Amino acid sequence: MVSGLCGGAPVILSGAKDRAGGRSEPRAPLSCVRRSFAALRTTGGIGILLLSAGSHPLAAQHSGQQWDVSPQAGRVTVGDTISLRFRLRLDERDLLFDSVPRPAVTPPGWVRILSVEKLRRQPDRLFIGLARIAFYRPGPQQVPIFQLPFMRSVKGLSRGTVSSDTATIEVEPVLTAGASARLRDIKEPAPVREPDPRELLLGLAALGVAGWLAWRARHRALPTAPEPAPAVALEESAAPDPYETALARLASIEAERWPERDVARHYEAVADVLRDYLEAHGVPARERTTSELRWALPPALLSGSAGRRFEEVFEAADLVKFARRRPDAPAAAAFLILARELLARWRDAVPAREMADAVR
After folding, report:
1. 230 in helix, strand or coil?
2. What is the crossing angle of helices 329-349 and 263-280, to 10°?
3. Span 285-333, pLDDT tens digits
4. Phi, psi (rounded to 5 degrees) for 115
């Protein structure tokens, strides 16, 4: 039901049953309804009727988090590039899974996100960054809300999403009401003369004659060269297999028995073996976070049990490295077994020659 006022009295545009008595609410007279819609047309272009179904807030900022968005100051017109400065402060227990903010929802057609830079870490758990957007509709416009996934090393909040604040920007039209400027008429394009077929044939004939003369002069000037002797093919030494190299390194790590004295080094060394295996096949894995690496891998390496093993191994390594979790020796041994299984599934999922072509 959408209601309003017409001459001081309520206007009901669609009737509804009264749940208690079964009575129908009275409808407004047709003339009054027509005047209401005429008023909407004369006062502002487009009227939007919002039907509320309960408040569902977007992903909120948790305790210890603050994400400020500061648009550039000054006059903004339709189509201007607007710089948004991000200033994100996290709790000391938080760890970002990604450092490139993404919009929470798809922006409408008149909002363009031109670029979003990677957040740079500053002292005191502070991250700063920059984004550039443009609006193609005048009036007050809402800045899109951006989000980042994070992890907190406390019970009950292993994963979460931190959302940015928003701001309202007043976008001014390029031409104001009553301006003397006016649109110019669009002129028809100047006709282009079509090429004469005779000129095209004459040019091709001249090009052919010139090529034949050059070929004849070259063969007259150069003596006949003797045929080169067949070169002896040298067998190239076979490159080491990345899979066998990775298995040998895992066996060496197991022999070191690091879980008994430095379990963090054990987890870091195993994760480095997996990343170096991907690097050997052309996948840049050394300088990427777990979230960025998940986007870089081909789908075949993340399907089925390989995807589950990837999550188990790299999440466990992140918890030890960033959340300072210290598993016992049996858990460290099981972690090494999972790494070997993940290597085997990667080798069987994608052939070595196709791995480099699968980088996104």
Report:
1. coil
2. 10
3. 888 888 888 887 888 888 888 888 888 888 888 898 888 889 998 999 9
4. -160, 150
Q: Which two tokens stand for residue 316?
A: 């466990």
Spell 312-349 as b/e; 16+ CB within 10 A means b. bbbebbbbbeeeeeebeeeebeebbebbbebbebbbeb
Asked if 340 and 243 touch (Cβ cutoff 8 Å), the reply is: no
Q: Which two tokens stand for residue 107?
A: 């922006």
| Domain residue ranges in the chain | 3-44, 66-171, 242-358
Class of the CATH-defined domain 66-171:
mainly beta
Q: At what angle do helices 263-280 and 242-256 cross, to 10 degrees?
A: 170
State the DSSP string of 84-133. Answer: EEEEEE--TTEEES-SS-EESSPPPTTEEEEEEPPPEEETTTEEEEEEEE
- Taken as a whole, the chain contains a residue count of 360
Angle at 118 between CA 117 and CA 123, to 5 degrees: 125
DSSP assignment letter at 46: -
- pLDDT per residue as tens digits for the range 18-45: 333 444 444 444 444 455 444 434 444 3
Distance CA 312, CA 290 (A): 11
pLDDT at 153 over 80: no
268-277 CB burial, b ≥16 within 10 A, e <16 = ebbbbbbbeb
> Which two tokens mark 304?
């089925």
